[in-house]
Backbone:
């Protein structure tokens, strides 16, 4: 099993504890995390990425438990093995497209994917040296996907990656995530409430507010 | 990509704010650099020029003026002193050596100093070519005089009356250059040296030629004989009542420092002034201005530090999400801390280097506006060890200004930042 999360619980201060469904994924598999707004979908994603610490349970990626890792070790592991696509692309404005991807290589201390090749596959080759400020929403989201893929991670997490995109771009982004994840043998988890995504990925778990 | 490059990108991403802060810091540091350079070189120069001169004797007047005119050749002399009175000092047991000095003429603004061979010997300066003066109207030039006027050995020129440029010429007699002194970086570089007699004769001729007016000190026009010998040591020999401008005196023993000035000031019509005493008095006066400028520079540096702090802190607010993203793609807390420190340090290093260069440029501009006089002898492109301290100061400012923003970056919670959209 490449990725598994078991018995995860977390409580925000002053709120009732959240319990999350277990997730099991093999390399190349994808899974949706569904749920209403405020049900804790994003909290689950943060737990899986090691951005938050669970109160109980474990998150295992390639045999290592993220829930018990700390500090620099966790940061580096995240940089190397987990690619995250956020709801808003949020690229580093001071850098151009290519430099944004190079940053991932530098921080992850890993050169997984050839950047030129990756940009070409995502149809961004002609934007390689442009400022990220002049990209369209769809292009920016593709760059942020490229950044998540840059280190050839074992797990790709996407948080509502399609919510601000039109139909055409939304489908494109989901396909892209699926094919790229399959290509590098990564597990893909998409947190969403977008119907358009459900049509492409049948596997899902549902997060319910307590 | 690395942290250096990333910091640099963030700095150049806000060119105006970065530019303003760098410029402010550079300005403050430039002022300190200029002060440092002037203070260092002035003090060195002042001490060097006054070395070996214990006392200067001139006509009654301001003692500071006597020092400035007699030792540094920047101010006007207080007047003339009768030579017979001056000569009495030689016999005093407290006096080791007396160098007579007659001023009153210039050539293109460079002073012609009538003296004896002891004067160049006092500064242990060697000739770069030719020989010392042996006859009336023979002169040697300081290195800078030769360079600026283009006059060389064997050339002749006409002196002008007065010690600054723009008076009438003594065209009756031509000075002949017999030698050029090597460059020593001291006062001699800017002087033309000749015998006391040459100065006398030049003025005698002038007065005779002009009017022979009754206010002349000398009763009758002097018969000038070119073959007449001159004194290369001690005082010039003459039967007439002649005048000198100043005397440079070396003490025989420390007792002289106490007794001799009082003796001269109360017992003669002359005035004695000690270079070290007068110069320390002058520096005390200038010190107020220097302290004021230093204070101003510190204030400017303080403001620039504050500016850097505010710029970093404000940009941090905009960049919390950026920092969270960096963490999400693998940056550690320490790396974010370093990123902010690097920005502050880079900003201030650029400011420091620019400030030092600006300071030297300021000085060279000041010097180019003062072609003659003491300022012109300063060297703008000498770098001092103290300038390294300027870089250190700047870096301290940079680190201090980055501490709070860097710590805030260190504490950024990624999950919280990323969840609020």
Residues:
């Amino acid at each position: 099993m490449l990725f598994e999360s078991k018995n995860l619980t977390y409580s925000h201060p002053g709120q009732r504890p959240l319990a999350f469904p277990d997730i099991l994924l093999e390399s190349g598999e994808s899974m949706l995390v569904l749920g209403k707004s405020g049900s804790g979908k994003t909290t689950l994603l943060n737990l899986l990425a090691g951005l938050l610490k669970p109160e109980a349970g474990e998150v295992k990626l390639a045999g290592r438990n993220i829930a018990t890792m700390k500090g620099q070790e966790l940061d580096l592991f995240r940089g190397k093995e987990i690619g995250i696509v956020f709801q808003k692309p949020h690229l580093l404005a001071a850098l151009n497209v290519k430099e944004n991807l190079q940053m991932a290589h530098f921080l992850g201390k890993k050169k997984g994917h050839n950047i030129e090749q990756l940009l070409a596959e995502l149809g961004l080759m002609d934007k390689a040296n442009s400022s990220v400020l002049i990209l369209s929403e769809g292009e920016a989201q593709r760059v942020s996907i490229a950044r998540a893929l840059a280190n050839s991670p074992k797990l790709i997490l996407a948080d509502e990656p399609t919510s601000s995109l039109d139909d055409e771009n939304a489908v494109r982004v989901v396909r892209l995530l699926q094919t790229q994840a399959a290509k590098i043998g990564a597990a893909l988890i998409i947190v969403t409430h977008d119907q358009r995504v459900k049509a492409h990925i049948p596997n899902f778990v549902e997060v319910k507010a307590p | 990509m690395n942290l250096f490059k990333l910091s640099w990108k963030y700095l150049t991403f806000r060119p105006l704010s970065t530019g303003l802060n760098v410029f402010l810091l550079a300005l403050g540091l430039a002022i300190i650099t200029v002060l440092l350079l002037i203070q260092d070189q002035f003090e060195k120069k002042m001490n060097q020029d006054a070395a070996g001169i214990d006392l200067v004797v001139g006509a009654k007047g301001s003692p500071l003026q006597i020092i400035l005119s007699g030792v540094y050749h920047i101010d006007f002399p207080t007047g003339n002193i009768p030579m017979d009175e001056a000569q009495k000092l030689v016999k005093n047991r407290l006096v080791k050596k007396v160098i007579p000095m007659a001023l009153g003429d210039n050539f293109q603004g460079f002073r012609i100093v009538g003296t004896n061979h002891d004067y160049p010997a006092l500064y242990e300066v060697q000739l770069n070519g030719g020989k010392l003066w042996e006859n009336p109207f023979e002169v040697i030039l300081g290195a800078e005089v030769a360079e600026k006027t283009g006059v060389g050995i064997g050339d002749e020129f006409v002196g002008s009356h007065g010690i600054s440029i723009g008076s009438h010429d003594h065209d009756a007699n031509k000075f002949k250059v017999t030698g050029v002194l090597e460059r020593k970086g001291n006062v001699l570089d800017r002087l033309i040296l000749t015998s006391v007699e040459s100065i006398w004769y030049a003025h005698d001729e002038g007065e005779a030629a002009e009017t022979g007016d009754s206010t002349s000190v000398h009763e009758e026009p002097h018969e000038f004989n070119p073959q007449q010998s001159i004194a290369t040591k001690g005082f010039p020999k003459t039967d007439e009542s002649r005048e000198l401008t100043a005397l440079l005196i070396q003490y025989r023993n420390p007792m002289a420092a106490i007794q001799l000035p009082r003796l001269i000031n109360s017992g003669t019509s002359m005035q004695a002034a000690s270079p070290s005493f007068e110069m320390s008095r002058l520096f005390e006066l200038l010190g107020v201005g220097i302290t004021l400028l230093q204070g101003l520079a510190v204030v400017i540096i303080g403001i620039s530090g504050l500016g850097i702090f505010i710029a970093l802190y404000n940009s941090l607010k905009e960049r919390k999400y950026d920092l969270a993203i960096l963490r999400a793609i693998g940056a550690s807390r320490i790396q974010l801390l370093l990123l902010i420190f690097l920005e502050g340090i880079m900003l201030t290093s650029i400011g420091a280097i620019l400030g030092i260069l600006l300071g030297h440029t300021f000085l060279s501009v000041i010097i180019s506006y003062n072609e003659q006089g003491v300022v012109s002898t300063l060297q703008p492109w000498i770098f001092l060890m103290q300038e390294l301290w300027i870089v250190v100061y700047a870096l301290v400012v940079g680190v201090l200004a980055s501490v709070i923003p860097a710590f805030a970056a260190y504490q950024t919670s990624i999950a919280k930042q990323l969840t609020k959209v």
